[in-house]
Amino acid sequence: GTRLSVQVILDRRNQEWIDNIGEVRCYLYPIHNSRAFLVTPSLASSLYLMVMYFITGSYQEVFKMVESCVSENLTAEEQQIFNQLEFLGNDFHPDAHACRLKLSVVTVGLGEETTMKCPWSVAEEMEEYAKKHAFVS
Description:
6 helices, single chain, 137 residues, globular, mainly alpha
C-alpha cells in the first residue's frame, strides 16, 4: 500500500530537548552485514527510530521494534523520545492501534515505578482494534 505523505519539522532550538540529549546530536544506524536491517546501538536510538517509523506510517517496522524499545529505567534522553508517543494518539490507522497495543503489552509488566507508561487508554485502543481487526496487516 501507499504511505501518507508526511513532513517532519524538527525544532533544533528546543533548549530542553538539547539539554536532555547531552553530547548526542544525531543517531547513526550501522547497516547489518546482511544489508537487511539497521542496527540500533542504544535504547535512545531504538526509541527514536521507532517513533520516526510511527510518524511515517511504517507500522510493520514499529511492530518489529517494540520489544527492543523497553526498559524499566529511562534516561532523560530516552524519556523525552518515549514521550513523543503521546502525539501519535490521533493516528487511527488499524495498524497504529495494533502497535500501541503491543507497546502496552510489553510495558505493562515494568511495575508502578517505571516512567515508561503508555499515554493512551488501553481499553480504547482495544475497542478500536477490535472494530478494525479485519483491516490490520
